[in-house]
């Protein structure tokens, strides 16, 4: 089954200037203790995932499209998807992503929505 794709009518996942950042550039290494000898430390996964704080400014039509995509295509965040994301070299590239945790939204202006979530990007 193919992964869903970020809808073309939504902005690329670069976030607002104040929302960019991550609390963990790379996942922590996993340690195993042994009765004799030093602990063994290794990577947890075969690929690196980076959680990024996202905040998107959406129009009412974009908000409806995002809500439908999150609910129907992503099964409220359970599925992975491909999307254009802002990469460390400031270019836009397509990566496999997943929305982790809850999605918060607010409407600070009459015809504008702010949507916030944690985007986990594979091989960012």
UniProtKB/TrEMBL annotation:
Native organism taxonomy: Bacteria, Pseudomonadati, Pseudomonadota, Alphaproteobacteria, Hyphomicrobiales
Protein name per its UniProtKB record: PilZ domain-containing protein
Region feature (Disordered): 17-41
């Amino acid at each position: 089954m193919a992964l869903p794709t970020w809808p073309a009518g939504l902005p690329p996942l670069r976030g607002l200037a104040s929302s960019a950042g991550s609390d963990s550039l790379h996942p922590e290494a996993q340690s195993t203790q042994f009765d004799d000898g030093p602990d063994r430390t290794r990577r947890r996964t075969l690929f690196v995932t980076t959680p990024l704080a996202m905040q998107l400014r959406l129009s009412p039509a974009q908000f409806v499209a995002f809500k439908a995509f999150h609910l129907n295509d992503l099964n409220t965040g359970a599925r992975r998807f491909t999307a254009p994301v802002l990469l460390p070299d400031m270019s836009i590239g397509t990566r496999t992503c997943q929305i982790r945790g809850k999605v918060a939204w607010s409407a600070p202006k009459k015809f504008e929505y702010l949507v916030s979530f944690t985007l986990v990007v594979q091989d960012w």
